[in-house]
Write a structure and sequence with these properties.
It is a single chain. The protein is globular, with a radius of gyration of 15 Å. The chain is mainly beta. The chain has 1 helix and 15 strands; from the N terminus they run E-E-E-E-E-E-E-E-E-E-E-E-E-E-E-H. It has one helix at 124-132; strands at 10-14, 19-21, 24-26, 29-32, 35-37, 40-42, 49-52, 57-59, 62-69, 72-74, 77-85, 90-92, 95-102, 107-109, 112-114. The longest helix is centred in the C-terminal third of the chain and has 9 residues, at 124-132.
Length: 133
């Protein structure tokens, strides 16, 4: 309805109090409430949703279609469609996305880069400064 694609359902959970060491591959939807030390990657060809909750931390690369972050991430984040940064999101690493929604309070220590048709080697902040000059 209204041109929005249906999001995949969350079928997997890394619960609070759980610590996972190693790379993680998933299909459809994954919610992380615990700690992951390793790369988190959605399987190619599947529409994917990754939710990193307020209590979660991920130390490694993230690759998924739709990424929602409200916890801590140390490493690059690649959102192939939409990246949503909730108020308590903290990212230490470069971020790439097709579309970005960032709430007040979210923090990124790294470069921002739009991908896809709007792809550029320059950061979004550099482009914004050029447009306002």
């Amino acid at each position: 309805m209204f041109g929005k694609k249906k999001q995949p359902s969350i079928k997997s959970l890394i619960a609070s109090g759980t610590s996972l060491h190693g790379d993680l591959h998933f299909a459809d939807g994954l919610r992380i409430d615990g700690d992951v030390i390793g790369n988190v990657r959605a399987r190619e060809g599947s529409r994917s949703l990754l939710v990193i909750s307020e209590s979660a931390s991920v130390k490694g690369q993230i690759h998924a279609d739709h990424v929602i972050i409200n916890g801590y991430v140390s490493g690059p984040v690649h959102a192939y469609e939409l990246l949503e940064l909730q108020p308590k999101a903290q990212i230490e690493g470069d971020v790439s996305y097709l579309a970005l929604e960032m709430h007040q309070g979210a923090v990124i220590f790294g470069r921002l880069a739009a991908t896809g048709e709007r792809s550029t080697d320059r950061s979004v902040l550099e482009l914004t400064r050029e447009r306002t000059s």
